[in-house]
Amino acid sequence: MRVAVFGATGAAGRRIVDAATRRGHDVLALSRATGVDVLVLGQVRDALAGADAVIDAVNTPTLHAQEATEFFRAAAANIVRASAEHGVTRVVALSIVGIDRNPHGYYAGKLAQERVYADASVSHTIVRATQFHEFAGQIWSSGGWGPVHAVFPARLQPVDLGELAEILVDAVEDAEAGGIRHVAGPRVEELPRLVKAWARATGHRGIRFPIPAATDQLKGMRDGANLPDAALDAPLIVGTIDFDAWLATQRTR
Description:
The chain is α/β, with parallel strands linked by helices. 39% of the residues lie in helices and 20% in strands. It has helices at 11-22, 41-47, 65-86, 106-118, 135-142, 161-173, 191-202, 216-222, 243-247, and strands at 2-6, 26-30, 53-56, 90-96, 124-129, 144-145, 148-151, 155-156, 179-184, 189-190, 207-210, 236-238. Strand 6 and strand 7 (148-151) form a beta hairpin. It is globular. Pfam families: NAD_binding_10. GO terms for molecular function: protein-containing complex binding.
């Protein structure tokens, strides 16, 4: 099967490309780095010529609701339109667990993305995942001011990216796929513990400074809105690699 992966050079996209390639698929790795801007319809249309299926793993760095909504809505609309024109039989979109209960900030954009697919005629599956194990390192890096690193309270059930990539490829191979599937790791965690463990294991030194959940999005994460236990209206797939097992594979800097 010729599988087009949008967002192919991102953290999730790279793992998806690897998983699909190992299974023998002819993979089109699509991103701005490979010359395809998902926001330019003509480029998306040209890239999907001959494709049988699509995995949408595009991402944007913005945390603002309006910017995220505009990006994800436009990207999904271009993928839907080009897929329909080329007769693509299956589209799988990577989304996030709990965004309908925590529709704020970046998550508002992901919800808009899902709605584009829900309104489309092309056959599609939404795979909602919890945060990746790498999230702890992202929080350390993004919340730093010199040696001080801000950490907010959040309850997570992080998932291994390698396992998630395999599940996304499973979905694109499944002729009966459709609707929404949820994917989570095996254990509920507290974000401050994950950040502390990540920093220690990878040799990052600094002061962890606890801050309150100041935005609606962070309040939702604090209260567990992005946990799959509140999302059992759809099939739940639970991975086997917990955060500590994943962390043991990371090299000390």
